[in-house]
Write a structure and sequence with these properties.
With about 260 residues, the chain is mainly alpha-helical. The protein folds into 2 domains: about 160 residues, no CATH class; about 80 residues, no CATH class. The chain is built from 14 helices and 2 strands. A two-stranded antiparallel ribbon has the order 1-2. α1 runs antiparallel to α8 and α5 runs antiparallel to α6.
Length: about 260
């Protein structure tokens, strides 16, 4: 079974909203027992314990306050390299380690989507995430953030496709800002790919401009001054406007400069 077939079999669950739960159960099986799926903390370094670290423990460590970007990138570079060897277990391992972010991303998209689209949205999110394991540049920073941006793009693509194909009750349609949500995300992904802005800045703009999170809340979670994030966002948005004006990015009919 190929990596793509592995994730499709997980994502293709017939129970509504069950794909992430199936993936999590599969992950738990991989990290349970006498020989759990693990990486070598000594080879990764960046503060990981100098021993074998199973992926369940790794997930916990990466979510902890002591996990800096160097540790996250080092661990994820190792995970992606292992997944590229072709063993489906490591692909599911990557999905499992990313599960908190995948659940959060799915929840944000599903909040503004008709319930009947849930299965396709979550399936496309997983499929896009796995597809990017083979393509993501692990030599660049912010590997997990960039993977999550692509997963979100897959989810939004599914929402847009289903909204176009399936007749909808008008009362279930997202409002105008949500309905055009795929446009600014695509713009931001393109800008990050072209190194106009960083993946971190793209993630910040998506969270605060599109998902309604406050800069103050994100600053508290990251334990950084809110003023630093405001400056980061303002600088990134200035670069976006300049890139659109100069023709380096295609202009989208969306407003990223609302209050937030």
């Amino acid at each position: 079974m190929t990596n793509q077939q592995t994730v499709i079999s997980v994502a293709g669950s017939t129970r509504p909203g069950n794909a992430l739960a199936v993936a999590e159960r599969s992950f738990q099986l991989l990290i349970t027992g006498p020989n759990p799926l693990a990486i070598d903390g000594r080879s990764v370094g960046h503060g990981l314990p100098a021993r074998s670290v199973d992926l369940g423990e790794l997930r916990t460590l990466l979510l902890g306050p002591a996990a800096d970007d160097d540790l996250k990138d080092g661990a994820w570079a190792d995970l992606v390299r292992r997944a590229r060897v072709g063993d489906p277990a490591w692909v599911l391992g990557c999905v499992g380690v990313a599960m908190p972010g995948l659940k959060n991303t799915a929840a944000r998209v599903l909040r503004s989507s008709p319930a009947r689209f849930a299965d396709d949205i979550v399936s496309e999110l997983l499929i896009e995430f796995v597809a990017q394991l083979a393509q993501i540049d692990i030599g660049r920073p912010r590997i997990p953030a960039r993977l999550m941006l692509w997963a979100r793009k897959g989810a939004l693509r599914a929402r847009g496709r289903e909204a176009f194909l399936v007749p909808c009750d008008p009362w279930e349609l997202p409002d105008r800002a949500d309905a055009s949500g795929a446009d600014p995300v695509t713009l931001l992904l393109d800008a990050a790919r072209k190194k106009i802005i960083t993946p971190a800045a793209a993630e910040l703009i998506i969270s605060t401009r599109l998902d309604g999170m406050s800069v103050q809340a994100i600053a508290r979670d990251r334990r950084v001054p809110a003023s630093k994030l405001y400056r980061q966002r303002e600088a990134a948005e200035t670069r976006l406007v300049a890139a659109i004006r100069d023709g380096d990015l295609s202009s989208m009919h969306s407003d990223l400069s609302c209050e937030g």
